[in-house]
Amino acid sequence: MRTSIGSEYDRQGADLAFTDSLTGLGNERRFFGKIERLIEDRADDPAPFAIGIIDLDGFKPINDLFGRGAGDQILLQVAMRLRAAMDGQSTVARVGPDEFAFLFPMVFSEDAAEEKARMLIEVLSAPYDLGERTARLSASVGCSLFYSGDETTELLVDKAETALYHAKQSGRGRVVVYSHEMEEAAKRVTQIEQALRRAVSHGEVEPYFQPIVDIRTRKTIGFEALARWTDRDLGFVPPGVFIPIAEERGIIGPLSQLVLRKATEAARSWPKGLFLSFNLSPSQLVDQNTGLHILAILDRMGFDPRRLEIEITETGLMTDPASAEKIVKDLRSVGIRVSLDDFGTGQSSLGRLREFNFDKLKIDRTFVSSILDDKPSEHIIRAILAMCEGLGMEVVAEGIEEERQAERLMQFGCGGGQGYLFGRPADASSTLDYLRAAGDLPLVPA
Q: Which residue from 143, 202, 427, 444 has the highest number of Cβ atoms inside 10 Å of its Cβ?
């Protein structure tokens, strides 16, 4: 009898070790075990099967807003819906705080996996009952398929996670099935990351400077510093490629400090009336050391903080508004001006303009490019200029490439302009030549 009872306790203990305590679904250990057994079963005849990872889009804000109890209720309802959607051979498990995973042994193609995953997203998109309230959320799914006995459980899951990352990057409620092209792209990203780490440590990323002008007089009033990188093996790498990689892989802090140090060193040679504009990334606005790093560089380079203008984006503000607000306040306390970049393309409310007390606003190039032939863009620009006048904020329009665009913006009362019409980004030496040609610096003696 004791042996029987002991065996029952052992069995229950083993079950608990493989079970998610909240939902009653299998946990990550059970999920991995099922994949491994299926791979073993198909070793002699490796018929395809599919796995996928489901991430609940927007779960954290709901959890923060309604409380953990409401979050647990949603997770229980998600588990119930997913369990009901499985057929007799399929498996669903909870593998993270707001992540679930499925195993479809009888799905043999990428199209079938995508179709099944879309069905799960639809199942999860219905409202969730929270007593007196309801909540909605969506889901993103990354899938991968087993094709040969060379693939391991870890490799399949890694591929599904890579596909999930691409799904979330492309928007909510998406399905992405892992492909060979994705694998090549991942290798390329890793190659760029490694080269970028080396370049930052060796000081090989350079600032280029694009002029910002007074539209009415066309006089240069400052420059925006832009990171440029040419690798010895990869050649020129566009900032639109390496900046997101630096952000994602945790290199953006050292990269930004390097470029700011070089930019302030170059800007010391400019006339004192010219300002230097410098961009901060979203991740820097959640790091409370950002302000200290900036001030330390300015002190080291002997650059007046009142000549520095920091640009931040609406997206950066929304990542962690409380942290961003503190950093902005600290920077402005020493005379650094703060500008809101790419206005009109992000998701912040107009109330943020009052809360953060910006010195300047930059109108995004998408509105400027269509100002001559698109009435809505014209009305939006007029509204932004009227709002900024009321708030006492300066305005710079970005992406000006035609004289007619500059004239139209001047008619509307826009004070500052930036774009290829006034000058392309150039290195430190060429920027000095630009200033000499404009008569802002004395000519170098022969």
A: 143
